[in-house]
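Convert to structure. Protein one:
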Amino acid sequence: MPKTSKKSQIVRSPRVRIEFAVLITLRCNFRCSFCIVKDLLEDTELGRGPKDMDYSDFKVLINKLAKRKEKNVCMGGGEPFLHSDAALMASYAAQKLGKTHASITTNMSLFPTDPDAAKKLLKSLGEARLNMSIDREHLRHDKSLPKRIKTAIDSAESYDDLKVIAVARNSYEARHPFPKSVSRLIPMELKQNMDLRFDYYSKMHEHPKTEDLSITFLPNGRVFAILIGASPNIKAMIGDWRKDPLEKFMEWRSQAQYFGLTRFN
């Protein structure tokens, strides 16, 4: 994973990782200190408008991304499973984008503990991967998460259908992102492919920073470019996906990937 300057003022890496984040809902049952879109989830001017993305609008957006053969498209929120059509959306995205290019990220709080219900939910996602966002702050929010995590792991047909995402706030958490009671539930295959991210709101600079650019699509049509890995993270509104051509947003990817990003307001 590429490293950045401690100052995070200018990024000069040709290896910036790009992802497309489709926020299907701005509703969330957690309030995490490290959330990169927490200002969008609140009732501010940035996130004002519908809290849930309409399924018909979602299909239009996914079809546009699929036509361009875009990869690394993640559905999230908020907590995506608060949206009644979350599984349907994930399945549609995987069908259009391909198995390895669509995923849905959840805090696992709504994942069923019943094995039969868990298998049914995983099957309803089609070929979309389930990203389990697990970290110490989430575990403090909901004491039932270890059981839900274990049920998901036991119910999955393949470890390829799952991914673990964790957030670390310091060097200790970078080495031990979860308590031992949870760590022993997670197979080594998942730990080896874990996406460990760092709390960009932290003032600590003792750990390497990620350099991810997220092109983020909101239910209200707005699109943000979010540079993940800066402290604080850098966010800019770059258009409206319902009105502007998709090519407009791809220019931000090119700038990040080939020319480097400078701080924008």
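Protein two, convert as well:
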Amino acid sequence: MRLVSVAAAMAWECDKSSLEAAVSRSRLRRCGRSSVTMEATAQATSKPFILDNLGLFLRGMRTTVSLTVLSFAAALVIGAVVAAFRVSPVPPLRAVGAVYVGTVRNTPLAVLIILFFSGLPDAGIIVHSRFISAIIVLSAYSGAFVAEALRAGVNAVARGQGEAARALGLTFPQVLRIVILPQAVRTVIAPLGSLFIALIKNSALAALISVHELAGNTEELLRTTARPIPVFLGSAVAYLALSLPSGVVVSRLERRLAIKR
């Protein structure tokens, strides 16, 4: 009887070990199939990621272009006025221009955006549009750099031309507008172009006040997908698509409007 019970126990252990081996092999096969399926799914979803979100990137690019063009147009006006102050024969105007340029150029753009958007309501001034708020700050900030570029261009114009215009009876504003500034602008096409390209990238800080430009849409897409590499890769490509053609246009304008000496 003892021999029979021992043989039965050995048979049971053998069947148990073979069953466990079969179960483990089955689990390995299922894990292998699931891992292959997950890899295939990941590859299938990563390939069309940028194309699937192309509309969001394009909307951000459109807002970035509008923000940049409007801000740069206003910055040209601000820069021309401040540059006129900087080269004015009136000392108080020169002091105002110097204080403006020194203050704005040495303050981080992010700080200016936050101060403008959050501080003005405390002073009783409310700008309801975040887009308009971003344009005001970006144009005021870039205007200081435009002013310095134009002042350098004014200093590059021969001094005798201004003196000759004054001798003909032109006032100082007329001398600037008719004689000096047109030549100064042609001299500083390259620096102004660099400022325009820098403004494209600086416009990304408008996302701090929830303007849905390219950087803002990138941040929103990152929150919804949690996939930083394809999100920021698509954003980088979009910024390159805006900056590189701008550089080409600036180079052509520089060659076409260059002053032959």
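Residues 2-46 form the longest helix (45 residues). The two ends are 120 Å apart (CA to CA).
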